[in-house]
Every structure is written in C-alpha cells, then in structure tokens.
Amino acid sequence: MRYAIYPHHGDWRSADTVGRALRFERPVLWTKGRPGALLRRSLLTASPANVIVDTIKPAEDGDGWVVRLYESAGIRTAAALDFGVDIASVWISNTLEDRIEALPTEDRGCRLALRPFQIATLRVFQA
Q1: What are the pLDDT digits (tens) for 56-71?
Q2: For the chain (length 127 residues), average pLDDT per consecutive 10?
Q3: Is 19 helix (H, G, I), strand (E, B) or coil?
Q4: End-to-end CA, the chain
Q5: Which of 51, 97, 116, 120 shows a CA-CA span of 20 to 30 A to 76?
Q6: CA distance 80 to 97
C-alpha cells in the first residue's frame, strides 16, 4: 500500500490535486532501448488542466480510436484537444462507441464543452 500527503495553498482545484494524484497513482514506466515511432510524440494533449484523459484505445470494431476523458474540477469547461496527427473526424459517442454527433475539427484537434464532472467518449478517425 502507498499513500501520499500533499500540502498546498488554496483549494484542491487550484493546487491541481487530481493531476498530482493521477501522476502518483500511475508512475512513469521506464524501459531500455529507443522509443518506437508511436512514443516520440504525445498521442493526445488536453487543456485546461482539469480535463483528464483517462483512456486512449483502438475502437472495438477496428475503425479509429476511442478517447475517454472527464472534467475533474466541477466547473463548466471548454476543452481543447490536440491529437498530434491529422484527423479526419471526431464524434461524440456513447459507451458502446456508437457515433452520436460530429464535432467540428480544426488543424489536428477539436474543442468540446464539458459540464462539471462530465465523462465523455469520443471516436477519432485519422486522416
């Protein structure tokens, strides 16, 4: 069992407690050798810091990728996502990975409005 005490100023939101807890819970894994091409860049960056990317995985039907993320601070948030590669489309999906609504894309990313503590599932198709 591991535990941590994190003294900070301000409330838990301004201290990035959720982000620090995730980094404590999921430490970086190291291995010998050169990184593969896939690991030379971020698969996805999300901002602001209260938008937490929980899962990136291949879609169950083999077509595209599924991203699960959530808003962690209990506030309405305009999330900005950058996929690091050109994308063809991004869809809001349900947990069964069905496409519900297309999101407008720009460059290599998209924007998404999140309600407080909302969990969102996205289907992403690469160009």
Answers
A1: 999 999 999 999 999 9
A2: 87 84 76 66 88 93 95 96 92 96 93 97 94
A3: helix
A4: 44
A5: 97
A6: 21
Give the CATH number, domain containing residue 64: 2.60.40.1180
- 92 contact partners, CB below 8 Å, separation of at least 6: 99, 100, 101, 102, 103, 112, 120, 121, 122
Pairing of strands 109-114, 119-126: unpaired
Residue 83, token pair as written in the block: 């996929």
CA distance 82 to 42: 9
pTM: 0.76
Mapped onto helix, strand or coil, the DSSP state of residue 76 is coil
What is the phi/psi pair of residue 19, to 5°? -65, -45
**Does 35 fall in a domain?**
no
CA distance 41 to 45: 10
Q: Is residue 106 part of a domain?
A: yes
